[in-house]
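hey can u check if this looks right to u? its 126 residues, i copy pasted from the old doc so theres a chance i mangled smth
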Amino acid sequence: LIDEGDSIQDSTFQQLAFHAERFSGVVLLLVTSEEAFQDRFLPPELARLIKFTVIFDKPTPEQRAAIWRSAIPSRMPLASEVDFADLSQRFDISADGIKSAVFRAAAAAVLRQGESRTVTMDDLMR
């Protein structure tokens, strides 16, 4: 994983450039922040290998609500209080943030001792 905190001297960038240059297929680099892959942060050997950049907008609240719904497995016990529209309005996060929140909520529910192991709104908001 590479983020905006990585320096251009970081060997991760050099390793990525080395392997991308030798790979005969298409390489997709997915980042959660446009700033993380600005040319000024990239070493020249990696920047010259990037041919196309596609920037996706952050999901709208309606899209986030749909992502919340789809991130919850059908077999996961879910409290009736869970409100996906409310979650999508409260938290301006991307799909990977939603996925992480669902995972943490499921882990919290499973680890509860002597209580219901149903995922609650509080679990999802932590």
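The helical segments are 11-22, 44-47, 61-71, 84-90, 95-111, 121-125.
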